[in-house]
Protein 1
Amino acid sequence: MLEGKDILIVEDDPVFRRMITGFLLSQGCEVREAEDGLQGLRALRDGIPDVLLCDLAMPVLTGMEFVEEVSLHYPMIPVIVISGTGEMADVAAALRHGVKDFLVKPLDNIMVLKAALMSVLKAQENTTEYTDFSSQLLQHDATVDDELQWHINELESNPEIARELLVGLMPDTLSRQGDWQMSYCVLQSADVQPVLLDYTWLMDGRLAFYLLDAESGGRQGAATVLLIRALFNDYLRKRMASENDISSMLQTIENGMKQSGYAVPIKGLFGIFDACDRSLTVVSTGSEAVLRTSDGEMIVPAGTSLGDGARKNLTSSYVLPHSGARLSLSKIGAANFSITIQRLDAMKEHEIHPAVKAKTKV
């Protein structure tokens, strides 16, 4: 499958670059090399490769800057990042830019690289939809088994790498869509696996979000959280446009967890907010939550963990006042979390005009 494929390697370490080049040539690939990001961009102008391999720690134009340029100007090129273990924050940032996979130096087993390349190439041939690294975890065939197991083992045996990766995948703390704003705040211990939040504003004005407590899954927590992230995004792409049912989403995710063969139960929370009618639907999966509005305080019962039949948990539905609401969780490992949904004009009403400030100043 690799024979005849054009692979561009952007790597400043000549020894490592020659090693990768030699292996790829032995597999029948056509290989081009670049010593830094600037040379890499010049190489892209000469021809679009089938796959791009790049390091993140490079001179002249850093690997992160290079990945950003590629994602902006060459979004059709699948990128695999090969990076040292001390750069997981950059790896996470690269994944948010659509990087298809990442490998950690040193490559003790070169066949992991082959598996990653074959996985990415197969995904390119089988779909025209956008996919990111996490989506690779949804593939279940012999071609990618070795690579998948490598990722799982890497995350289990290196909790610090797993932690840095999950923290790096956290989205912006504030996001606006139309008349509404969503923000979140999370405080957590540096000694445990973190919580991971993600959210997506849909075209019809709905906000879909989730929170997952990686620590609740033990050694397999990080790998499970990454799988759930992929299943969540896959569900949004394929089914969310026609459905508004969290139970259906949870059932799809739990089916994927069961099929994976390695996922463990995880505590968390899932929600959908519809800006059109101000409705908020929430299902807690093992973590009790509190919803606070101007009308009062409501408890969202914990229910069972995701992976233990959470699709049967109680679905809590609310119509938020114009001032919005705050959803808080405090019993999630060593973390404290809150998400706030507010209407922008309601926020302005609570601001004190400068003239009023002057009058009330003592």
Protein 2
Amino acid sequence: MSKEFQTKKVPTAVIPDDKLSKVYLSPNIIEAVTVDKRSCNIRKFKRVGKNACVNMSTGEYIEFSKNENLQSKQAHFKKAANDLRRIINLNFIGDCSEKFITLTYCNRMEDYNNASEDFKKFWSLFKYRYPNCEYIRILEPQESGSWHIHVLIKDKTKKNFYVKHEVLSSLWGHGKVWIKNLPFSENFGAYFCAQFNSTDNSNEESKAIQKGKRIDYYPSNFKFYTCSKGIEKPKPIVMSHGELKRLVNYQEPCYAYTNTIADNDVVVNSITFEQYLNAV
């Protein structure tokens, strides 16, 4: 299957005030996504099973190569990281009631499903002891292929949350554990997701890029993250870009870029992503 569309990151586009934007609000960050053309007929392909799709304009049945399956997994991974960033920003602000823990294995754990089940058992014990807590769980492979687990935890009563290291270690029971306060950051979502959604044009690959290459360890249809029921999910608000500028008090974005979408080298659409500090 040949590529029908190409995406390219370009300098941030100038957006007219009447253009509609999808806006995500969180305590520290306001994020906006603006699509230049709301309907440009670029969705030509419909997925059929795990390894094929149909070109809806021609009826052609197309099987994916191994490399294209990897590209599909990378796209899924990137979308999940974007969703996760927004969820973290909505739910975590660096309060004393919030903690970041890491759970590891003393022996190699190469089975994604077993690691997921181990976390469920751990959380059942943890929740019994700390009933007011909620979590966001991120399952990540090490370079060796052995899984470890990152967990953002918050006490919804907003009280100073404290867990003894030996208690956490006993509840986990599979290896070493770490617990620490959230680092100072105005954008916690970006801080925690950077390693999964980074690009680097330098000759020396960063740690983030090396971690990004571990996507092969994830099974098909994997869940990059899971959340407990008490974690809020972001709900976008649609407004004009002029309204967005008034909302952020006409400040410049702290981060912004535009992706163009081309069909046979002809640009057919563009999507602009912006993040603003929430000064309200």
